[in-house]
Amino acid sequence: MAAGSEGGTVEQAKEACLRLLAVRARSRAELAERLAAKGYAPEVSEYALDRLGEVGLIDDAAFAEQWVHSRHTFSGKGKQALAQELRRKGVAQSDAAAALDAITTDDEEARAAELVRRKLRSLPRELDHEKTIRRLVGMLARRGYGQSMAYRVVKTELAERGIEGDLDDSID
């Protein structure tokens, strides 16, 4: 499509959206951005997106729910990281909040503990206690887990494995 005010018809815009949606679910904002990049006029894009929304092919609340479930379950992302990802994808705060509320604190702690256990298997046994803690807490922080939860989970997992040390003195 050539850029400009005549980027294409509504039908062409809908087809472009359908091709994108065939690859993976996308938010309305992501689709609007892609249509703009292809040169579709804003009013053409809006009309095409409205029509796809009316028939249920674009639903940011459902997208957010699916995204949160998938990224938490399979990528081990924490709520903070997921909220940031949804913001970047243009999902409204209300849709994001509803999806994020599906992850309980217990769910998040259980997933963090799984990640810590998996990481512990690959850490060198001779690694000193302080470095072990820093690596584990850092890994959880990069995945979007809050600092207090990360410390709590790491402390619990290390204690259960008999890896002693004072967590409060180890992290600065």
Multimerization status = single chain
Overall outline: elongated
Helix fraction? over 70%
Total of helices: 10
Determine Rg (CA atoms, Å).
22 Å
Describe the structure.
The chain is built from ten helices and no strands. With 172 residues, the chain is mainly alpha-helical. The longest helix is centred in the middle third of the chain and has 18 residues, at 105-122. The termini are far apart.
Notable features of this structure?
172 residues; mainly alpha; 70% helix; elongated
Concise overview:
The chain is mostly helical and 172 residues long.
Layout of helices and strands:
Elements: H1 10-23, H2 28-37, H3 42-54, H4 60-75, H5 79-88, H6 93-100, H7 105-122, H8 129-142, H9 147-160, H10 167-170
